[in-house]
């Protein structure tokens, strides 16, 4: 027996038994994938106990179809010049031995999970145990992805399994990158590295979209610094940022590296007619149980769906505060509002939606706040859009990182409502500054702005 590819020592297996061998089938790469990766006919080799049964277990029979789904999403199978197959074994579950998975079952979930490991676990494996989620979380998500892609064959299975995975992930204890690897049972707790790991990929896909997510997964599997080698979380993060163009420090910190737990949201809504339609305000409160989560604010895009007589309108808002008003305008009169109805975020149930007062929809309350500093970053000029709850004096100052005031405007008698002030910052050097609003009543409010040249 010879392997033509690099192999991690824990992926070597020798299976001895009275087997019946099924090797008459092959994986033939479908035409659309052959156009991308080149043609491929690869043997599928299954070793099943000789127990008098002539039938190949159903899950084994779907192997070729599973490979086609994973090649579409993850890129070419990493051991194409050899084979893929299964050897039946007596222990429960499976183990992703390279090109020949050991299986103690034959369910679609198990077979697809172990097959996904050939990309994430075999072609690339985790360098150290704390980063085990790079193997198990990815394979768990791979099984979900297969059911989603084949929903016509397994109707409702994806939704059911997704709900089960998400509910289990809510029970994850500690950080996803393991701090303690002395307990095998804690390391392999399904709620953490398996299910929360899968939910991190689920949320990442929601944030970046299907096309970018697919590009991320393929770029990671084919990264020349990692392929047929080992990886840690920072390697995957690097690929995610390179492909997406996003700064994902906060996402990885709160969900993977240092953060624990998950958010719980409560929300209420108002709407009122305006000149160009209906103005909607959703007041979103984020609540963390300190015994579960060490994250003060989970910074995530949140989908808000407004139901109207003319159809549903989806609005995506970045939630980055514990207590946040989200304002936007829709063309038709709302009938109701839902927050994250697709449950794209790993969160506790429920989100409590309803009017923000007992009288239902009505005039929006005015809140003293800096609504927006725009553009941000700015080159030479920017505006401060603010709202004021009560009449009175307002000071708008611009401060550098040392706390020195470099610009200021004073409105001696500002009226309740919204207004804007324009600033010419062409004389200031590039860098980070802070806009501070001091109303006559209440505390000062600060927002960051970046000047570029």
Written overview of the protein:
This protein has helices at 31-37, 58-61, 63-74, 108-116, 133-149, 157-169, 184-187, 190-208, 210-222, 233-244, 249-257, and strands spanning 19-28, 41-49, 84-88, 94-95, 100-103, 124-126, 229-231, 264-274, 277-287, 300-308, 311-319, 323-330, 334-339, 369-374, 381-388, 392-400, 405-414, 417-424, 431-439, 445-451. With 453 residues, it is of the alpha+beta class. The N and C termini lie far apart (63 Å).
Number of strands: 20
CA(first)-CA(last) distance: 63 Å
Query: Segments where pLDDT lies below 50 for 5+ residues?
Result: 358-364
Please give the largest β-sheet.
Answer: 5 strands, mixed
Quick check: average pLDDT? 91
- Strands ordered across the widest β-sheet: 1-2-3-5-4
Helix content class:
25-40%
Radius of gyration: 27 Å
Strand content: 25-35%
Describe the global form: elongated
Class derived from helix and strand content: alpha+beta
Tally of contiguous helical segments? 11
């Amino acid at each position: 027996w010879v392997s033509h590819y690099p192999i991690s020592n824990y992926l070597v297996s020798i299976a001895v038994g009275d087997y019946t061998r099924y090797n008459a089938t092959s994986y033939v790469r479908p035409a659309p994938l052959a156009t991308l990766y080149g043609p491929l006919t690869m043997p599928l080799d299954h070793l099943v106990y000789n127990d008098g049964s002539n039938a190949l277990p159903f899950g084994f029979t779907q192997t070729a179809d599973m490979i086609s789904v994973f090649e579409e999403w993850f890129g070419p199978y990493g051991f194409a010049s050899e084979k893929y197959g299964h050897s039946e074994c007596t222990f429960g579950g499976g183990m992703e031995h390279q090109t020949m998975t050991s299986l103690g079952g034959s369910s679609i979930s198990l077979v697809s999970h172990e097959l996904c490991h050939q990309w994430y676990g075999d072609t690339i494996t985790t360098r150290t145990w704390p980063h085990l989620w790079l193997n198990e979380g990815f394979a768990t998500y791979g099984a979900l992805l297969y059911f989603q892609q084949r929903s016509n064959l397994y109707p409702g299975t994806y939704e059911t399994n997704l709900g089960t995975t998400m509910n289990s992930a809510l029970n994850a204890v500690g950080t996803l990158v393991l701090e303690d690897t002395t307990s095998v049972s804690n390391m392999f707790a399904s709620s953490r590295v398996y299910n929360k790991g899968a939910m991190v990929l689920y949320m990442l896909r929601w944030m970046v979209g299907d096309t970018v997510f697919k590009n991320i997964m393929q770029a990671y599997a084919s990264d020349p610094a990692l392929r047929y080698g080992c990886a840690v979380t920072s390697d995957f993060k690097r690929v995610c940022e390179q492909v997406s163009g996003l700064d994902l420090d906060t996402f990885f910190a709160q969900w993977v590296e240092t953060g624990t737990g998950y958010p719980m949201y409560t929300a209420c809504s108002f709407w009122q007619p305006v000149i160009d339609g209906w103005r909607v305000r959703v007041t979103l409160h984020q609540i963390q149980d300190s015994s579960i989560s060490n994250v003060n604010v989970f910074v995530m895009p949140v989908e808000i769906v407004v139901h109207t007589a003319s159809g549903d309108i989806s609005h995506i808002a970045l939630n980055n505060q514990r207590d946040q008003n989200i304002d936007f305008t829709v063309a038709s009169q709302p009938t109701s509002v839902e927050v994250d109805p697709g449950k794209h975020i790993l969160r506790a149930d429920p989100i409590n939606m309803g009017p923000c007062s007992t009288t239902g929809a009505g005039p929006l309350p005015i809140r003293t706040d800096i609504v927006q500093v725009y553009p941000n970053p700015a080159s030479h000029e920017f505006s401060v859009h603010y709202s004021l709850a009560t009449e009175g004096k307002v000071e708008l100052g611009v401060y550098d990182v040392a706390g020195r005031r470099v610009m200021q405007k004073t409105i001696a008698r500002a009226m309740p409502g919204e207004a804007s002030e324009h600033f010419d910052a062409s004389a200031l050097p590039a860098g980070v500054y802070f806009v501070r609003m001091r109303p006559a009543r209440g505390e000062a409010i600060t927002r960051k702005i970046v000047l570029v040249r």
